[in-house]
TrEMBL record:
Keywords: Membrane, Transmembrane, Transmembrane helix. It comes from the Bacteria. The chain crosses the membrane at residues 42-65, 77-94, 100-121, 133-163, 169-187, 194-210, 222-241. The keyword Transmembrane applies. This is Tryptophan-rich sensory protein.
Length: 252
């Protein structure tokens, strides 16, 4: 399994490069412009994929070659990480081929796998040297970004198939923001203020604010304010969770 994780970590940047060359069809940026939503982020935000892929590859190398690592948590998350990496890689050509419903299922499945990794490692990282930097941090960063990307993808599917109004998008966009808030805050609470997870989400929310604040689509101003508000709440929660002392077990 460790070699499969390594190979799939390398597959993601390779497939991403092919996707950006238009090998599979229109690029992600072109499709985002074709189906504008009130939750889309500014283009610069997607540069985070470079850091995510680089750190995921570092994780793949570390877990494959670190001979002194014998952590049960690492064995437990390897299948989940492999699935998350495979789904991330597959999502790119599927989205480019405009198989949007399939892409939506894939990105949510990828999020489920990588968020599970982040949660497991958040509870176990203190017991294993190196787990924080080489496993918990990269997988948490990946999960944090996907936590917003999945909702962005959902909005694009709604617009692409006209499942809801594309003229007045604010109402259903607010429902998506509410879903994102629940997911982010509950997951962050479970992980007691996961800094890489929160940082990726904050990066995405800031970019949503930048895009919507400078856009003229109906409702974009409100969407920008909501994105900024959610970012402030998430940052405050993370700070509070990090500063609050952990509860000590009660011994009878």
């Amino acid at each position: 399994m460790r070699w499969l994780v390594l190979l799939l970590s390398l597959a993601m940047p390779a497939v991403s490069w092919l996707s950006q060359q238009g090998v599979f069809g229109p690029t992600n940026g072109a499709l985002s412009d074709r189906y504008p939503t009130l939750i889309v982020a500014a283009g610069y935000a997607f540069a985070i994929w470079g850091l995510i892929f680089l750190w995921d590859v570092a994780f793949g190398i570390w877990q494959a070659f670190a001979k002194n690592v014998r952590a049960a948590s690492l064995d437990r998350i390897r299948p989940l990480a492999a699935a998350g990496f495979a789904l991330t890689a597959v999502w790119m050509p599927v989205f480019s081929m405009e198989l949007f419903l399939l892409a939506l299922l894939i990105i949510w499945a990828a999020l489920a796998c990588l968020l599970a990794c982040a949660i497991i490692l958040s509870a176990a990282r203190a017991d294993t040297p190196g787990l924080t930097v080489w496993a918990w941090a990269p997988l948490s960063l990946h999960a944090g970004w996907l936590s917003l990307a999945a909702f962005l993808n959902t909005a694009q599917v709604i617009v692409a198939y006209r499942l809801l109004s594309t003229e007045t998008m604010l109402r259903w966009t607010l429902a998506l923001f509410a879903g994102a808030a629940v997911l982010l805050l509950l997951a962050n609470q479970r992980m007691r203020g996961n800094l890489p997870f929160a940082a990726a989400a904050l990066w995405a929310l800031a970019a949503v604010y930048v895009k919507q604040a400078n856009w003229t689509v109906a409702g974009s101003g409100t969407a920008a304010v909501v994105a900024a508000g959610l970012a402030i709440v998430l940052a405050a929660q993370t700070l509070w969770l990090r500063l609050r002392p952990a509860a000590r077990p009660v011994h009878g």
